[in-house]
Amino acid sequence: MVTVPNLTYDYSALEPYISAAIMKLHHTKHHQTYVDKLNDALSKTPSLAGASLVSLLGDIQAIPADAQTAVRNNGGGHYNHSLFWQVMSPQGGGEPTGMLADRIVRVYGGFQQFVDQFTEKALGVFGSGWVWLQPDMTIITTPNQDNPIMSGGDEPLFGLDVWEHAYYLDYQNRRVDYVKAWWDVVDWRFIEARHESRGGS
Fold first, then answer.
1. Distances, alpha carbon 111 to alpha carbons 101, 106, 151, in Å
2. Which of 139, 107, 101 is nearest to 123 (CA)?
3. Mean pLDDT across the stretch 135-144?
4. What is the pLDDT of residues 19-37, one digit of tens each?
5. In what order do the strands lie in the sheet with 139-143?
6. Alpha-carbon distances, residue 94 vs 62, 97, 104, 117 (angstroms)
7. Alpha helix positions (H), the chain
8. First-residue to last-residue Cα distance in the chain
9. Secondary structure, 3-state, 48-81
10. Three-state DSSP class for 98?
11. pTM over 0.90
């Protein structure tokens, strides 16, 4: 049985960029629903017992047809949100340092150029979805609760949730304002450590 991970900060800790109200709703309602539905799907499919979430998502086509959609949507939602909470911090913002910063500059020409391209991708997602930075420094998007693992890709360094449930209480339909504010809570220390653990150079 999977569970919603506890946050390492209070719901109000990301204010004024993301409100306590939306953090609590997002964490206790939306993420909890993904977990509940994933557990239900797994309980009905004994052949999936004991498999890690990453292995399930990485071989999604091998999951029995009657469980595949539920695992894709809700397992994806659980994985994506579990990472999302970790890439934000009350001490976030600023710019990365070290090897990650060097790679971003090499690939994009500068940090601001990277931010601009990532933001453009985020604003270009039609409907609901995510935008990701991959270990090879590519920026990709996925619809709904899909993620790069499902298409044979590596686990992302970080992702941004651009579903309306992530920002509507604070920003209504102004996704551009949400994305701009989000950069002020990005936890580069966590992302740098994740990058280095994956052999980044």
1. 8, 10, 28
2. 139
3. 98
4. 999 999 999 999 999 999 9
5. 139-143, 129-133, 158-161
6. 42, 10, 14, 17
7. 20-25, 32-43, 53-58, 65-70, 76-86, 98-108, 111-124, 168-171, 175-182, 188-197
8. 36
9. HCCCCHHHHHHCHHHCCHHHHHHHHHHHHHHHHH
10. helix
11. yes
Query: Using 50, 70 and 90 to split pLDDT, how confident is the model at 201?
Result: low
Query: Could you tell me the two tokens for 100?
Result: 């990650």
Superfamily of domain 98-197, CATH level 4: Iron/manganese superoxide dismutase, C-terminal domain (3.55.40.20)
User: Does the bond joining 16 to the residue before it have cis omega, within 30 degrees of 0?
Assistant: yes
Q: pLDDT > 90: what percent of the chain?
A: 95
C-alpha closest to that of 31 among 135, 130, 165, 153: 165
Q: Residue 198 — pLDDT band, cuts 50, 70, 90?
A: confident
Domain topology for 20-86: Helix Hairpins (1.10.287)
Q: For residues 164 and 169, what is the distance between their CA atoms, to the nearest angstrom?
A: 9
Within 10 angstroms of residue 87's Cβ, the number of other Cβ atoms is 21
Looking at the chain, how many residues does it have? 201
- Domain extent listing, the chain: 20-86, 98-197
